[in-house]
Amino acid sequence: MRAFSFPVTAVLGPTNTGKTHLAIERMCGHSSGMIGFPLRLLAREVYDRVVKLKGAKQVALITGEERIVPPDARWFLCTAESMPLQRDLAFVALDEAQLGADPERGHIFTDRLLRARGREETMILGSETLRPMVKALVPDAEIVNRPRFSTLSYAGARKLSRLPKRSVVVAFSADEVYAVAEMIRRLHGGAAVVMGALSPRTRNAQVAMFQAGEVDYLVATDAIGMGLNMDVNHVAFASLTKFDGHRQRRLTVSEMAQIAGRAGRHQRDGTFGALTADGPGAFTPEEIHAIEHHHFPKLDFLYWRDGEPDCSSVDALIASLEAKPDNRVLRAAPVATDLAVLKRLTEDDTVRDRARSPSQVARLWAACGVPDFRKLGVDPHARLVARLYDYLSTGNGHIAAPWFADQVARLDDVTGDVETIAGRIAAIRTWAYIAHRGDWLADPAHWAARTAAVEERLSDALHASLTQRFVDKRTTALLRQIGKDAGALPVVIGEEGEVLVEDHAIGTLEGFRFTVAADARHADKRLLLAAVEKRLGAELAKRGRELAESSDDAFSISIDEAVDSRRPTPPRRRPGPSSTEQSGKGVAPSENALRLGPGLRRGSGDIEIVWRGVHVANLVPGTNLAQPRVLLDRAVETLDPALRKAAQARIDRWVADQLARHLPVFGALDACLRDAAAGAPLRAVAGALLDAGGLLPRRAIGAQIEALDPAARKKLHRMGVTIGTLDLFAPALLKPGPARWRQILMRLGEGAREGATVLPRNAQGADLPFGFRPLGQQAVRVDLVERIARAAHDARKGRAPFPLDTALATSMGLQPETLARLMAQLGFRAARPGDDGKPRWMWQGLTPNAKRKPPPRDNAFAALAGMLDG
Taking the model in full, what pTM does it have? Predict the structure, then answer.
C-alpha cells in the first residue's frame, strides 16, 4: 500500500472510551472535516450535535436517504457509503472501522480505511481487534489505545420481571423485539423500542421517552451497539444467536462486547447479563471473562472490493468488482446485493445494448447501488432496478414523474399496525434514496422534500403506534391522578372530540356518543365510563340544546352504506326484449316487475339523519312513503326528557319541511288516499302510486285508470301526476333534488347522473324505479317517452301509414333500434317506407288489459267469494 505524508491516527479501544467524542472535537478544531459512520441514526445524532456548535448553515448531513448540504457547508457527517471522497477537507475520520470484517458491508469500510484521507489529519476509530489490520494496511499510522472510562461487569441472569430500571433488553429480530416489549409492558408498564430499521425521527422519539424517564426500559436490536449513546445501567441479552443473512449463528465475543458496552455512561459503571442462566442463551465463563477484560481475537483479514471500478464496459465493470486483492490481509468481498443485481440485469441483451458507453455503464452501476431497504431479495429488487434503469437509459434520462409520484403516494398512509407502518418506512427509504440522486429526476429537490415529508409522517405514526402498543401511559396517569376516584378526573374535550386526561386520550365524544379508547384495558373501561358519566353531563346537555335550536342547514340525510351494502341487489334483466317490450305488442309487465319499487322500499339500508356530521336519528318506515317516522339514536335518547322531546320535535319538523319542499306529490297522494270523497278508483290509483314512489307502469293498474272519470283525471293532474301512454309518473320527481330524496326514502341507492335522459341498458339507474324505461340496449326517461308518444299520435291520421319526425329522438341520443322498440310498445308497427325512403309507421292500437280469469267454482274459496259478493 502507498504511504501518506499527512498524519493518520488510529484510535482503538472498547466502547465508552470517548473515541467518537474525540473525533468530533478534532473535526471541529479544523477548518473543515468529515466523519463516516456505520449507521444513518448515528450520523444524524452527531449532525445534530455539530449543528449546535457550528450552526446549520455550515454543517452537512449525507446519507443514502437524507441529504442536507448547505452551500457553505464545511463539516460533513455521513454514512460510510455516502462519504464524498472527492472533497478536499482538512480532517477525515472513519468510525467503527472494524466493520471491514463484515461480509455484507465490509468492503465499504475497507475502501474508506484505505482511501479516505484528510488534508491535515485522518483518524481511524475502531475496536482493538483492528490493530493488526491498521499495521498491515496503513503502516505509517500512529495507533493510540484508549481505555474504557467505566467498569463493565457481568450481573448474572435475570428474568424480565426482575430487571432493574434503566435496562436495555437486546433481541435479534423484529418479532422478538415486539414480544419482549409486550411482556415488559405487562410487567413494568411500558418500554421504548429501537431498531436499525427505524427512521431517525422515530428512533429519537423513542429514545427521548427512555431518557426522560417516561419508561424505564428499552428493547432494541444490536443496532444500539454502534455508538448510540443513552443512559443505560444494564444490558440484558434476550438471546445470544442471530441470523446473519445466511445462517443462524452465535454472536462472536466481540459482538457481545460491542452491545454490552452500551451499559454505563462516561464514568458510571454498567452491567450486562442474559435472561436465562442455562442453555444457548446463557454466557459461558470464557465469554464473560473476555467481555469484562476486553480481550478479543484480533482480526486477521478485511473484506475488499475495488472502490473505483472500471466503467469502460459492462464486462470490465464486473471484472473489476470481482477482482482479487493483492494484499495478504484482504479478501475478496462476497457477492453483495448490488453486484448480484448487476449480473442479473446484464443477462438481458436490452440492458447491455443501452450500457455501451462509460457514462451509461456508470449509470447502470449507480442504479444497481439502490439499497434493498425492504429486504426483498435479489430477484424482486432486480425488477425494481430494471425499471429504474429503463427510465435512466432512455429519453431524457429522468425517471417518469407520474410513476414516481404514484409510488410515493401509495406509501403516504399512516394507518395500520406497527409492522405495516414500519414496512412503509422501509419502502419510502428507497424512494428517498432515489430522490437524492441529483440527475435521476427532473425536479429532485421537490421529490426529496416530498419523500422526507412522507417519512416524517410515517415516523410520527410509527412512534405513536409503538407507544400505544408498548407503553400504557394512560392508565398510569389515571391512577397517579385519582387512584380509584373517578369523579376527580380532570376531563378535557379536544377540538376533534377527543376526551383527555392529562393529555392522554381516554376515548372520543362524537356528537352524543362517548366511545372508550379501543386500546383501553378491560379493567380500565368501567373507570373511564364512570368518569365520563360524571364529567360530561353538562357538555351533552349543551349539545342537546344546540340540536333543538339548529337551523335547517345543520341537518342532512343519507343511507348508511355499510348497512345498505348488505341489501340484496334487485336482479337486472338481460339486454334484449323484456317482459314489457315484446316485438310489436305491448304486454303487461310481470308480477315481479310490478313489485320492484315497493320491494326496494322495504330494503334493510338505514336512512340516517345527520346533524353537524353526527348521526342523531334514523328515518324508519311509517304508514307510507309520505309519513316516515323519526327514531332518535340511542345516544340522543340518553338526554333528559325535556331535551329529548325538544330534539325529537326539531328533527320531526325538519323532515316534514324537507318532504313538503322536495316531495309535495307524496303529500298530495297521501291526502287523496285519505279523502273519502275522492272516490274508490282515484284512491286506488293514489295508493298504488304512493307505494311505488310516484312512478308506476300504467298496465299495473290499467283497470283502475280506465275507471277514472274526467274529474278524477283532472284532480290527479293537479296533484302533479301525468297519466302517460305507458307510465304514470310525477315529472317533478325526476328533478335532481326530489329524485335523491325519493331514492333515499325507497332505499334505491344511487341513480343516474344528474341531467341524464338516455342511458346504456347496463348503466346505474337504468330501470323503471329510477324513472327510466328499458328499451333494448338503452333506457329512456319516462317523461321523454311520453313526449315521443305525443309526437307520434299528433303525426298519425287514423290507421294510415305516416312518417315520424325523428329529430326529437335523435336529439335525445336514441338509437334506431331503441326507437323501434318504443314505437312497438306505444302501439305502432313499422310500415313500408315512403317514396323518400324514410321509415313510416301505422297505428294498430295497444293490447287491451288481459281480463282476469274467473276463479274456479268447485272449491271452498268460491263459496266464500260468493258470500263476499253478496
Answer: 0.56
